[in-house]
Design brief:
The complex is a heterodimer of chains A (about 270) and B (about 375). Chain A is mostly helical and about 270 residues long. Chain A has one domain (about 55-265): Orthogonal Bundle (MetI-like fold), CATH 1.10.3720. Chain A is about 75% helix and about 0% strand. In chain A, helix 3 packs antiparallel against helix 8 (about 180-210), helix 6 (about 140-165) packs across helix 8 and helix 7 runs antiparallel to helix 8 (about 180-210). The radius of gyration of chain A is 23 Å and the shape is globular. The two termini of chain A are about 45 Å apart. The relative contact order of chain A is 0.14. Chain B has about 375 residues and is α+β, with helices and mostly antiparallel strands. Chain B contains nine helices and 20 strands. In chain B, strands 6-7-8-3-9-10 form a six-stranded mixed sheet, sandwiched between helices. In chain B, helix 3 crosses helix 4, helix 3 packs parallel to helix 5 (about 160-170) and helix 4 crosses helix 5 (about 160-170). The radius of gyration of chain B is 25 Å and the shape is globular. Classes of the chains: A mainly alpha (about 270), B alpha+beta (about 375). Chain B: The complex is composed of two ATP-binding proteins (PotA), two transmembrane proteins (PotB and PotC) and a solute-binding protein (PotD). Chain B: GO terms for molecular function: ABC-type putrescine transporter activity; ATP binding; ATP hydrolysis activity. Chain B: Keywords: ATP-binding, Cell membrane, Membrane, Nucleotide-binding, Translocase, Transport.
């Protein structure tokens, strides 16, 4: 008798396991969002519904300041890292296999492997030396650090998209009188675009979320939203934190949905 | 002295005008892949002249170098040595986008992010032609390949045959001097392929553009081409009309690659060929004396029920009914196996049975002496 095809869904305890996994994944987030509407001062005891913490967070100049800075850093880091990652992806896929290819891949993906704290400390030391030598201060250091660790996140989806692209298309463009630049502008880039957008969004979210490296690299008065929240928690824990986190969550969901709709339309 | 110089210039000028009559010319083209001792010569000293306005086919098995030659003409590869001329001008090292030559790719390579009309207009747009001209040409091309209704579709919404037409229209739209076709029909099923063969021939006649068509399909080559260049192992084996290639193959490779054929050893005295069993036929003009190999197509092998005088005695080994034809496998006294192909009669019954001894004759002039 032919055996029935193996299905994970038919194993005993599958449903229970699935439920546990989803509860573990999403219950904390649901709790966070629910308690952002808590009328009481506590993050743990429910005191009725209220918008107060959102209003408070919205009117908090420190929060506003940190949000603007976070967005500025994330946008800059996403743009820089995506541009670099696109070039790196073109350089590593648009050619025959070359010596040291694996080494180059490892070098590009290095920030994914090296413990974040090591990167953080080394950047702190390096930037300290540069600041001392040149006297230049500013937000540029944080942007540079973010752009650096965002590169591999932007690189992966772009490379995946390029590897799935038929290289004959570029040959065909050249055959049809397109210069190398026209080929890139009219053929490679439009086909690559969903990958580039995915890379940029991933980089944006990763940058927006970063605590460890930012905490080490930033100077005084350069708090981003996550480092501001961390600082607040040391003093007192109020549902204001929940409200800010919920807004960040909403922003992420909007971005992901936009990306999903955008790429679906393109294919 | 002055006269000699004058003559030299004259000779040079004649050469130039001759070259200009050719759409494409390759001179001693060599393409080696790899380096040093591992180098593989995909093209080994190929010289060829393709005339203006002809349908020229490069025919050969995979790996024979036909696609490499096409890529040298298109500019996707540069030769290791040798020269490529387009209407007499040296284009050997010109990048592909500066050559008035377009390609229909085996995989079609249609741009997936563009519509059918945008695909067809791509070449003209890249050349910076005015919008009105691009539109007019695209409309004309859509009509030429009968895809007017598909203009605003994405190419992924088309069938294989329709994609093929878009690829053709896209390559023809900029009115290239030469159109290169790299096994464009290999992805289509038999019926569609037959249809496209006729279509290609029609397009070539209507546009008057020189077509260089690459294929491994001998039937395709015979039915469509004005001339065929047969290639094998990086070398050009023979160039000629389909008729010449089929009836007068120069060597064993060409004879066996195109159609079915028989090979027989023979002794030549320059005017007569003596085959095993003492059967004698007239040698084609220019045949050298000594041991030679003779080739005869199965349909030029005639059979008589008894081995009469002046025929080659043979034993029937087997009979295969092929519908239109009856195929006899014959065994000669010296052990050579040959085939005869006879048109079936109305009953479809074989006139000769296995085991029977028969007399074999070749149609006069059908035997061809091979170079090697």
């Amino acid at each position: 008798m032919a055996t029935k095809s193996f299905s994970v869904a038919k194993l005993p305890g599958f449903t229970a396991t699935a439920v546990i996994v989803f509860v573990t994944l999403y219950l904390p987030i649901l709790t966070l969002v629910a308690y952002s509407f808590n009328a009481s001062q506590s993050v743990a005891i429910w005191g009725g519904f209220s918008w107060d913490w959102y209003v408070k967070a919205w009117n908090n100049d420190a929060v506003k300041d940190a949000t603007v800075r976070s967005l500025l850093i994330a946008v800059c880091a996403a743009l820089i890292s995506t541009a670099v990652a696109t070039m790196a992806a073109l350089g590593t896929t648009r050619r025959k296999a070359f010596k040291g290819q694996t080494f180059i891949y490892v070098m590009i993906n290095q920030p994914l492997m090296v413990p974040e704290i090591v990167t953080a400390v080394s950047l702190l030391i390096l930037f300290g030396m540069i600041k001392q030598a040149t006297g230049i201060q500013g937000i540029g250091y944080v942007i540079f650090a973010h752009a650096a660790f965002c590169i591999p996140f932007a690189y992966l989806p772009i490379r995946a998209r390029l590897e799935g692209m038929d290289m004959t298309l570029e040959t065909a463009a050249a055959d049809l009188y397109a210069s190398p630049w026209q080929t890139f502008r009219h053929v490679t880039l439009p086909i690559l675009l969903p990958g580039v957008i995915a890379g940029a969004m991933l980089a944006f979210v990763i940058s927006l979320d970063d605590v460890v490296i930012t905490e080490f690299v930033k100077s005084g008065g350069q708090d981003t939203l996550p480092t501001y929240m961390l600082g607040q928690m040391r003093r007192q824990l109020t549902p204001e934190i929940n409200a800010i986190s919920s807004m960040l969550l909403a922003l992420t969901i909007v971005l992901l949905t936009a990306f999903f709709l955008l790429t679906r339309k393109n294919d | 002295m002055a006269l000699r110089l004058h003559n030299m210039i004259k000779i040079k000028r004649e050469r130039v005008t001759l070259s200009q009559q050719n759409a494409v010319e390759a001179r001693n083209a060599v393409k080696a892949f790899g380096q040093g001792d591992n180098a593989v010569r995909a093209l080994n000293d190929v010289s060829i002249e393709i005339r203006k306005g002809e349908f020229f086919t490069l025919l050969g098995p995979s790996g024979c170098g036909k696609t490499t030659l096409l890529r040298l003409i298109a500019g996707f590869e540069m030769p290791t040595s040798g020269t490529i001329l387009l209407e007499g001008a040296d284009i050997t090292y010109l990048p592909p986008n500066q050559r008035p030559v377009n390609t229909v790719f085996q995989s079609y390579a249609l741009f997936p992010h563009l519509t059918v009309a945008q695909n067809i207009g791509f070449g003209l747009q890249m050349q910076g032609r005015p919008k009105a001209e691009v539109k007019a040409t695209v409309d004309r091309m859509l009509a030429l390949v009968k895809l007017e209704a598909m203009a605003s579709r994405k190419t992924s919404q088309l069938s294989g045959g329709q994609q093929q037409r878009v690829a053709l229209a896209r390559a023809l739209a900029p009115s290239p001097k030469v159109l290169l076709l790299d096994e464009p029909l290999s992805a289509l099923d038999l019926k569609l392929r037959r249809e496209m063969q006729g279509e290609l021939k029609r397009l070539q006649t209507e546009t008057g553009i020189t077509f260089i068509f690459v294929t491994h399909d001998q039937e395709e080559a015979l039915t469509m081409s004005d001339r065929i260049g047969v290639m094998s192992a990086g070398k050009l084996q023979q160039v000629g009309t389909p008729r010449e290639i089929y009836t007068r193959p120069h060597n064993r490779f060409v004879a066996s690659f195109i159609g079915e054929t028989n090979f027989l050893p023979a002794t030549s005295d320059g005017s007569t060929l003596t085959l095993p069993g003492g059967y004698q036929i007239e040698a084609p003009a220019g045949t050298k004396a000594g041991q030679v190999t003779v080739t005869v197509r199965p349909e030029q092998v005639k059979l008589s029920p008894t081995p009469e005088a002046g025929t080659l005695p043979a034993t029937v080994r087997g009979v295969v009914y092929m519908g239109t034809d009856m195929n006899y496998q014959l065994h000669l006294a010296d052990g050579t196996e040959i085939e005869a192909c006879v048109v079936s009669d109305v009953t479809g019954e074989a006139a000769l049975a296995a085991g029977q001894t028969v007399g074999v004759r070749f149609t006069p002039g059908a035997a061809q002496v091979l170079e090697d």
